[in-house]
Amino acid sequence: MKGFVKRDDDFQERRKHLVDLSDDQLKDKFWALVEEIVDPLLELAEKNTSPSIERSVLLRMGFSSLEAKPLVDGAVDRGLMGHGVGHVVYKVAKEKNLDVRTAGLELIEGKHWDDAVKMFKGGAK
Known about the structure:
Blueprint: H1 11-14, H2 23-47, H3 51-60, H4 65-77, H5 85-96, H6 100-108, H7 113-121
Helix pairs in contact: 3-4, 4-6, 5-6, 5-7
Organism: Fusibacter tunisiensis
GO molecular function, one term: D-ornithine 4,5-aminomutase activity
Pfam family, one: OAM_alpha
């Protein structure tokens, strides 16, 4: 076909370093390579977030989109975004002996934010 470049078949050459490995060794090598690829992605996910990601987490925790927005805004305003807004709500709930939904609704009302800041910026996680 016109426009296609024939690729030299170098499979035998590229597989030489794998030829003497057993099935178990091949499996181990495969999973080691997968980890090399996935670990940086997990690190990025752990260290980076966005308001839309945090709203999505809150939706999965049972909050409506109208409730999620002020929670995210409150966390952004107080520099708590990097801890995860769902995590903030959870920690407040645990600290105040509330269910997660009640803690979130009370944060929306303006309660507990000072405590949340102390929990996260005071070194406790």
